[in-house]
Write a sequence for this structure.
């Protein structure tokens, strides 16, 4: 039996925060080393303490805004923030991306689609509001994962996975 979800959109901020978490999980130490080193040096010379505050309050926020702009210009992010809906059969799913503005589900408004296999759905991570479904696709260059709202993914595999996590 096939299930169709209503058309939904995922905010760009959800993808940017997911990508930032993914990068910071690998490079958390590189973010902490400069302020800690400057704070230690600030114990001996007050000028280094000022530098520590400048790095923490000026440089890092500017770097985060640059990261936002770089990610916002990625072609895969512009596609993933379009209106989309899911068609699932209980074992796999297909995500259809629609053109703007989101109207009725019609063949004319579909601009791309991605098939998600059973293994990817079973490996999906539930992060509260969204499932992170890691996929390998050649449809969209650079795409590593999809964010699917938990209330839109009504598959038996994802339901059993979220129950195991609780």
């Amino acid at each position: 039996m096939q299930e169709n979800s209503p058309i939904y959109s995922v905010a760009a901020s959800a993808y940017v925060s997911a990508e930032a978490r993914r990068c910071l999980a690998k490079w958390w130490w590189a973010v902490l080393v400069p302020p800690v080193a400057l704070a230690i040096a600030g114990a001996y010379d007050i000028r280094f303490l000022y530098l520590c505050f400048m790095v923490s309050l000026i440089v890092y926020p500017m770097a985060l805004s640059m990261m936002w702009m770089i990610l916002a210009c990625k072609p895969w992010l512009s596609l993933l923030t379009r209106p989309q809906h899911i068609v699932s059969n209980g074992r796999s799913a297909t995500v259809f991306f629609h053109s703007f503005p989101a109207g009725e589900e019609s063949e004319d408004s579909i601009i791309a689609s991605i098939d998600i296999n059973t293994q990817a759905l079973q490996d999906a991570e539930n992060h509260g509001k969204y499932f992170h479904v890691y996929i390998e696709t050649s449809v969209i260059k650079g795409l590593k994962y999809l964010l699917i709202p938990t209330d839109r993914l009504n598959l038996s595999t994802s339901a059993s996975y979220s129950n195991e996590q609780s």
Notes: Residues 155-166 have pLDDT under 50 and may be disordered. The first helix runs from residue 12 to 42. The chain has five helices and seven strands.
